[in-house]
């Protein structure tokens, strides 16, 4: 066979004996290099078929999974009450959730004689967060200094044109009106299905603007729907006011969320879920390939890389076929 191959190469290319042998050796090396990956996969597969190696692999994956940080962002609780933005200090702005730079801009603006004449003027301050404004807006009550001045003999209202006296009377009790209007607004709200609500419905709640409403819907889509009302706490960017509003008016219908077919889902399907990282998705699929399909929750819980907290969160979303 070798001499026949040498004869073909010499006759075809006109090589000498040494050149022919070198060519055959080169082809042999190339063939080995091409076959090496298949050989490696075969050896690795045989290695993982050993039960002791399976246990070792599971232990390593569990250890690596536990190295991932599990801390979630913590948002401070904010106690709100009616306030006048023309009167509160920089420190009070910070307590309301405003960052240092924007609070300082407001302080500088007021020192230069600037005043907020209506609520929307706050948004003219560069980089004032719109979400924070939506949260604070029901509590803002601005006293107009020009309307509050009094003469030693007569009140300012007595010098006003008749058509403006009613407006003056309303502004005089701005704080009480704000509280009353807020209560009336809340009375008009009714409970709604959180898994069906759109941004328009969500923005009716106190403390929720356009951006927060979009964050809620985006997180709902990633989950496949909310399975528990407490999942609201996981949505990034919500403060205690918006969270309490949602928990007060939103409800979740049983089985109104999308489930994961755990025995057929691919790695890409799994890692798109907020509770499943890329590493955990790979672990689940590899475990399924090695041990067969998952029969129930107890079978799924055997994956050591899944901690108890993650397991409890995933349970409502698991579908065993």
Characterise the protein shown here.
The protein is mostly helical and 321 residues long. It has helices at 2-13, 17-48, 51-66, 90-95, 100-111, 130-136, 145-148, 162-172, 174-188, 199-202, 210-223, 240-249, 267-271, 278-291, 297-300, 308-314; strands at 192-193, 250-251, 260-261, 318-319. A two-stranded parallel ribbon has the order 1-2. Strands 3-4 form a two-stranded parallel ribbon. The longest helix is centred in the N-terminal third of the chain and has 32 residues, at 17-48. The chain is elongated.
Question: Which keywords apply here?
Answer:
321 residues, mainly alpha, 4 domains, two-stranded parallel ribbon, 4 strands, 54% helix, elongated
Quick overview of this protein structure:
With 321 residues, the chain is an all-alpha fold. The protein folds into four domains: 2-49; 51-73 and 259-321, no CATH class; 90-188, no CATH class; 192-251, DNA polymerase, domain 1, CATH 1.10.150.280.
How many domains, as an integer? 4
Q: What fraction, in percent, of the residue positions are helical?
A: 40-55%
Q: Low-confidence parts lasting 5 or more residues at pLDDT below 50? A: 70-76, 145-160
Order of helices and strands: HHHHHHHHHEHHHEEHHHHE
Count all strands and give the number. 4
Distance between the termini: 56 Å
Strand content: under 5%
In DSSP terms (H or I, runs of 4 or more residues), the helix count works out at 16
Which structural class best describes the helix and strand composition? mainly alpha
- In round numbers, the mean pLDDT is 79
Radius of gyration: 34 Å
Note the quaternary state here: single chain
As laid out across the biggest beta sheet, the strand order is 1-2
Sheet with the most strands?
A: 2 strands, parallel
From the spread of the alpha carbons, the general shape counts as elongated
């Amino acid at each position: 066979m070798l001499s026949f191959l040498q004869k073909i190469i010499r006759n075809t290319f006109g090589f000498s004996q040494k050149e022919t042998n070198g060519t055959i050796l080169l082809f042999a090396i190339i063939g080995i290099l091409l076959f090496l990956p298949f050989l490696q996969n075969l050896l690795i597969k045989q290695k993982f078929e050993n039960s002791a190696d399976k246990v070792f692999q599971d232990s390593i994956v569990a250890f690596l999974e536990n190295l991932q940080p599990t801390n979630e962002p913590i948002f401070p609780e904010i106690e709100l009450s009616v306030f006048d933005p023309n009167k509160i200090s920089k420190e009070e702005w910070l307590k309301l959730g405003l960052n240092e730079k924007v609070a300082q801009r407001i302080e500088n603006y007021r020192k230069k004689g600037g005043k907020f004449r209506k609520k929307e003027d706050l948004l003219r301050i560069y980089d004032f967060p719109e979400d924070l404004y939506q949260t604070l807006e029901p509590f803002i009550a601005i006293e107009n200094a020009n309307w509050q001045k009094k003469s030693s003999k007569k009140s300012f209202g007595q010098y006003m044109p008749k058509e403006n006296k009613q407006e003056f009377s309303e502004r005089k009790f701005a704080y009480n009106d704000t509280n009353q209007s807020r209560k009336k607004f809340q009375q008009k709200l009714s409970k709604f299905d959180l898994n069906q609500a759109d941004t328009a419905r969500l923005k009716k709640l106190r403390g929720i603007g356009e951006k927060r409403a979009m964050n809620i819907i985006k997180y709902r889509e990633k989950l496949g729907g909310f399975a528990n009302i407490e999942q609201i706490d996981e949505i990034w960017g919500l403060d205690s006011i918006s969270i309490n509003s949602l928990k007060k008016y939103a409800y979740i219908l049983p089985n109104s969320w999308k489930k994961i077919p755990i025995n057929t889902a691919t790695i890409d399907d799994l890692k798109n879920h907020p509770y499943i990282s890329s590493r955990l998705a790979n672990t689940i699929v590899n475990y399924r390939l090695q041990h067969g399909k998952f029969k129930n929750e107890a079978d799924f819980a055997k994956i050591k890389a899944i901690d108890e907290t993650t397991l409890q969160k995933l349970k409502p979303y698991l579908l065993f076929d």
